[in-house]
What does this fold into?
Amino acid sequence: MALIEWRDEFCTGIEAVDFEHREMISLINEAHDALQRDLSRSDFESFLGEIYARIASHFALEERIMKAHGYDEFEIHKEDHERLLDDIRDIMAEYDAGGYEGMTSELATRLQAWFADHFKTKDARLHRLLG
It folds into this structure.
């Protein structure tokens, strides 16, 4: 079962952003499915690194679009992006320190909660103003 299901309410109306949102959700769902199995330490680290890199890249695109349009809540939106990246870095650091018990469920819970809230609030507002 997918961790995050794509819903029309997630659409921003910006084709490149919506494409990347779908790609990120797909990656997160793939990682979630894989993490339900017994993964080696290196496979888990690879998933964390891939998720972090793809999300950071997407945020950079979204932030460029917001800046180009003079988006009035750019700083608030960017702070929310940074919060998720900080959470992922914290999970990576804890995992590196050997605290990997329960990491898969914690990662899944954080990503699911963050995306559901962020899409419904921050990205929905961005869509309304730019659409």
Summary: The chain has one domain: 13-130. The helical segments are 15-35, 41-68, 74-96, 103-130.
